[in-house]
């Protein structure tokens, strides 16, 4: 049995929002920022903004996005500030101890697969846009956000026969609270005020979020598995440093 370390990506491992940066790469900064503002208009929460984002790709071939994602990451990975110090350091420690590393994100594989391969992750849990029989996106997607992250993580842990109490999780935003509460060893990256209050209450580790350069690529030969949004119920473990079910925040969604 290998303990599993689950990592949120945006703000936890990568300094930035992968979907936003990918949109900038495709459309140019000005056009992408206008679209991004429209996605968050009328008070839309993260999950709804995520759904709207994937509607932008209706009619686009999946293979095209996967190829473009690699070109985007080739540029992003050269930045001196593209990663986050605390999350990256934790990932290195887990790999050194032989733990499985799993990325959990509301983003999608065109952005996440190059990151997962670079870091030597074992699996990716993410939003999987719907495609038709010809590999063209329909514009529909079920976001991997909030509770969905916890559901996916616990399902994977069960499939790999790892007790949830033996798992670790890292997040930087209140929307990661469900994921953090579904494992025995949660940790906070950065300074989200809601997560910091919970970290102080429950004794969770707190890690810094300084931007740093990408690490050297991992040449461990891992085969990254991609998992879509599961349709199962989550049963958080009792104790193990996890908060009670009612320890949610208004920002979590």
Automatic annotation (TrEMBL):
Coiled coil: none annotated. The keyword Transcription regulation does not apply. InterPro entries: HAD-like_SerB (IPR050582), HAD-like_sf (IPR036412), HAD_hydro_SerB1 (IPR006385), HAD_sf (IPR023214). It comes from the Bacteria. Pfam families: HAD. Gene3D superfamilies: HAD superfamily/HAD-like, SG protein - dephosphorylation function. The keyword Magnesium applies. Keywords: Hydrolase, Magnesium, Metal-binding. One of its GO terms (molecular function) is hydrolase activity. Belongs to the HAD-like hydrolase superfamily. SerB family. PANTHER family: PHOSPHATASE RV3661-RELATED (PTHR43344:SF13), PHOSPHOSERINE PHOSPHATASE (PTHR43344). This is HAD-IB family hydrolase.
